Structures are given as C-alpha cells and as structure tokens.
Amino acid sequence: MDVQLRHLRALVAVADTGTFTDAAAELGVSQAAVSRGVAALESALGVRILQRTTRHIAPTATGAQILAGARRILAETAHLHRIAEQSRTELRVGYAWAALGKHTRRLQRAWAAVQPGTPLVFVQSNTVTAGLSDGAADVAVVRRGLPAPTGVAGVSSDRREAGRPAPVDPTLSDPRFATALIGLENRCAAIATDNPLARRRTLRVEDLTRYTVAIDARTGTTTPDLWPAGQGPAVRATHGVDEWLTLIAAGQAVGITSEATANQNPRPGVAYRMLRAVPQIEVWLAWWRDDPPAQLDDLIRLSRDAYLRTRESS
Q1: 252 lies in the same domain as 296
Q2: What's the burial of 184, exposed, middle or buried (CB within 10 Å: 0-12/13-18/19+)?
Q3: What is the pLDDT of residue 174?
Q4: Shared domain check, 286 and 158
Q5: What are phi and psi of 242, to 5 degrees?
Q6: What is the CATH number of the domain that holds 26?
Q7: Whole-angstrom Cα distance, residue 143 to residue 264?
Q8: What whole-number distance in Å separates Cα of residue 7 and Cα of residue 94?
Q9: Average pLDDT over residues 53-81
C-alpha cells in the first residue's frame, strides 16, 4: 500500500489533538477512519509510528521523525494548492530588474478597467526566465534571450517586416516558451553622482570604456557587443540589481541598462544618463507555449498600448 495524503493528515491530527476522537472531529471523518488511516500508514512504512495506551498517545522515536516529515509534506502540498489558486485568481507577471518601467502604472490602470476581477501582480525573480520556469510567474517580462535547457533543441524562425530585420525572438533557443514583442526601450548609463560624466545630459558607450562596467550576465541586458571588437571595457560580474547599484554608487563601476531600470530603481548616489547611438532594447512577454494564461490577449494588447501611448506623447 502506498502512503497517501489522507494517512498523513490522520497522523498529524492525532498528534495535534492527542486522541483519535478529537482528530476525527477536526478532520470531519469517523474515528474508525482515523484509526484505519494511521494503521495504513504504519503498514505502508513497516514501522510503529504511534505508541498507544489507555491514557496516552505519543509518537515512537521513529514516529517522531515520520511526523516531522508528514508535516513538511502537507505544508508543501498546501503550498502547491495556493500556487494553483493564485493562478486562477490573479495574473502574475515576473521580471528580473524592472517590470515595464514608466509604463507599469499605465498598464495596471488599464488592466484594472478591463479585468477588475483578476489583479495584475508583478513579482521580481532574478532568474533567466524571470520566474516563469519555476512557477513564480504566469507571464514574464524578458529583455534578453532565454537559453535552452539541457537536452532541448532550439527552434528557428524567419519573421521579417518590410524593410527591416525581424526582431530577435528571445525564445528561439527555448521552444518551451512563446513570446510577443510589446515595445522598445532606450539604454542609459548608470554612474556615480560625483563622477564627472554625471554633469553631462547624454553619453556614448565610448565614454564608459575607461571604467569598469558592472554586468549581470544571467539577467542583464548589457554585453561586450555594445563596443567595437577588442575595444570593450573591463567587466565586473554582478548578481542582481541591488548589488549592481551598490557598486555604481560607490564609484567602483559604471553600468548600462534599460531606461526601465532608471525609472523603477532610483538610488541615492546613482545618476542615470541617456546613451546615444546604441541599439534599443526589445521588450517581450513570454509564457509557457502549452499553457497560456486565459487573459493573455488582453495583457499583450494593453502592454503594447502602454508603450505606444508613451511614444506618441513624447
């Protein structure tokens, strides 16, 4: 006989209440059902779990360890149910560094008008898929490619618009995910406020060459490709936006990032300055190809509209 959750619930209820009768009342079943559940668990595991007397019920030495494990399993199971429930009652959008920057509030207001019964919740996850692959998010904001998992072959695409190259779909290397391009963002430099470059309104990447550039290779959008071959700066690896900002504020590095980061992560001691003559950053929404959220079409439409409206008003 396999161990079943109802057996574990019976054991925990007996341990918590102290009697089979009270455990039955707590679980809403008969006393006989509780007794059978504990007995089935002991039979499945092949050990005595509870020591029973006419006055007292207590776990054996082995039973105490099993009881602790049962509590962990039931807690994890409850957590899985909460995740599933959240996916039905709210739409979680993951991001690594910045949600949609200055467009975030516009999207949230528009979403509330269209989907008042489903909160749009942004969750930060400094992972390559911004929480998508581990279930922390239903949809993810991505600004860079998603590497294929081990053993998964990539797919190809040949999407082109008239007169311009096709956007580089970040999921081309990971066929598990589908995406939609929602907008473009400018790049900006992040420098210490006492750096002489902070006196200028705009900069070029060449202005940063003599400094160490902080780069998060896992989730950041900056790569040495922004500089001509062989002319790039020294690089310092970082592991998240807070570490990145702390280095820059201390004058130990400079950074290049999306304008969304500047909007969402102001920091004393850090100045953001727009960069000229550099490629814009493509912003994508990504989701599981075989499990798209029910409200996906609205999210894509409203996200694109938020970027479009801001561009038209600028």
Answers
A1: no
A2: middle
A3: 77
A4: yes
A5: -70, -45
A6: 1.10.10.10
A7: 15
A8: 37
A9: 86
Residue 161 confidence (pLDDT): 36
On the question of pLDDT at 280 being above 60, the answer is yes
Q: Name, in order, each residue with C-beta under 8 angstroms of 140's C-beta and a sequence gap of 6 or more.
A: 93, 94, 95, 129, 130, 131, 132, 285, 286, 287
Q: Is the pLDDT of residue 308 over 50?
A: yes
CATH number at 225 reads 3.40.190.10
Same domain, 156 and 300: yes
Average pLDDT score over the chain: 87
Domain's final residue, options 87, 104, 128: 87
- Which of 48, 64, 87 is the C-terminal boundary of a domain? 87
Among 41-55, 86-100, 242-256, which range has the highest average pLDDT? 242-256
C-alpha dist (Å) from residue 25 to 22, 36, 38, 55, 211:
5, 15, 15, 19, 69
Number of domains in the chain: 3
pLDDT attached to residue 18: 87
155 pLDDT band, cuts 50/70/90, is very low
- Kindly list the distances between the CA atom of residue 241 and the CA atoms of 18, 140, 172, in Å, as whole numbers in the listed order: 50, 17, 26
Domain residues for 28? Answer: 5-87
Shared-domain flag, residues 251 and 125:
no
The DSSP result for 116-132, as a single string, is: TTS-EEEEE--STTTTT
Other CB atoms within 10 A of residue 201 CB: 6
- Residues whose CB falls within 8 Å of the CB of residue 283, separated by 6 or more in sequence, listed in order: 100, 141, 142, 143, 181, 182, 183, 184, 185, 258, 260, 307
